[in-house]
Amino acid sequence: MTSTQTQALGLDVSRLRVTYDGFVAVADTSFRVAPGESFGIVGESGSGKSTVLRAICGLAPKESGTMQLVGGDENHAPGSKAFRRRVQMVFQDPYGSLHPRQTVDRLLAEPLAIHGIRDAETRIERALDEVGLGTGFRFRYPHQLSGGQRQRIAIARALILEPQVLLLDEPTSALDASVQAEVLNLLEDLRRRRNLTFIMVSHDLAVVTHLCERLMVMQRGRTVELLASSDLAARRVAEPYTLSLMQASSGFRRKEPAAPPP
Ligand SMILES: Nc1ncnc2c1ncn2[C@@H]1O[C@H](COP(=O)(O)OP(=O)(O)OP(=O)(O)O)[C@@H](O)[C@H]1O
């Protein structure tokens, strides 16, 4: 384990149910993500994928079910400050998730202040380096950044508290294809270096199977199937719904990881 790595944590979600004023967004879903694993959630629009991530980090109202970090010595209750520090989320739209009137410096300093962490200076510089931007970006505003740079800032903001679990909600779908690949490679690199656990939602099966080892297929708020990405790529699927999802995702082919630079 290097100095930037901490003990990996996994997440056990059991019989999760989320409703909005009686409307059932997530009916019943269960899955276990091992420490250090990269896990994807796929399904048609409205199947409840984002709601699962939101419920994990306390942004959607859980009606019933349990969520528990696994692999650590302590048990942190969902919703507690300690849980929130270990589980961070990156949203789809970096422009919407970053306050437009705050500089990068302030955006990165805020979570540190909330959690009472003192060495902000060092952490901000390190976070900017880690996402490949450097300190030259520190006093820019979100509108002075490209889409890819904004998403790198959103990733830096999520990582600055040194979480063990990263929830990624369509992290690249608002980006151009070439920038998308760069951000996916960055995420993959950060996961390896930091021993992170990923739970990623995407409508793009190629992206999920590129980044994730295992995945869950959702339909109408329920788990349809849990399978390995390699099984999906080889079309070894048990459920007709999964097959139809693959057919709908035209031209789906598992992307091989980009070759490292020479
Ligand atoms: N805040 C909310 N209030 C009421 N209903 C909501 C709310 N958020 C989500 N929903 C509903 O819950 C259902 C699941 O939404 P969710 O965003 O989780 O789906 P999704 O699978 O992530 O879809 P997409 O791929 O289109 O983002 C949808 O029918 C949606 O309209």
Structural topology:
Elements: E1 10-20, E2 23-33, E3 38-43, H1 49-56, E4 62-70, H2 81-86, E5 87-90, H3 94-97, H4 104-114, H5 120-130, H6 147-159, E6 165-169, H7 177-194, E7 197-201, H8 205-211, E8 214-219, E9 222-228, H9 229-233, H10 240-248
The site of adenosine-5'-triphosphate (ATP) has 12 residues, from strand 2 and helix 1.
Provide a descriptive summary of the structure in words.
- With 262 residues, this protein is an alpha/beta fold.
- 35% of the residues lie in helices and 24% in strands.
- It has ten helices and nine strands.
- It has a six-stranded mixed sheet with strand order 5-6-7-3-8-9, sandwiched between helices. Strands 2-1-4 form a three-stranded antiparallel sheet, with helices on one face.
- The protein is globular.
- The relative contact order is 0.18.
- The model has no long low-confidence stretch (mean pLDDT 89).
- The structure holds adenosine-5'-triphosphate (ATP).
- The site of adenosine-5'-triphosphate (ATP) has 12 residues, from strand 2 and helix 1.
Q: Which geometry do the CA atoms define? A: globular
What structural class do the secondary elements suggest? alpha/beta
Multimerization state? single chain
Write down how many β-strands occur, each being a DSSP E stretch of 2 or more residues.
9
List the ligand species: adenosine-5'-triphosphate
Strand order of the largest sheet: 5-6-7-3-8-9
User: What is the share of helical residues?
Assistant: 25-40%
Number of helices: 10
Radius of gyration, rounded? 18 Å
Order of helices and strands: EEEHEHEHHHHEHEHEEHH
Distance from first to last alpha carbon: 26 Å
Protein name: ABC transporter ATP-binding protein
Domain ABC transporter: 11-245
Keywords: ATP-binding, Cell membrane, Membrane, Nucleotide-binding, Transport
Family: Belongs to the ABC transporter superfamily.
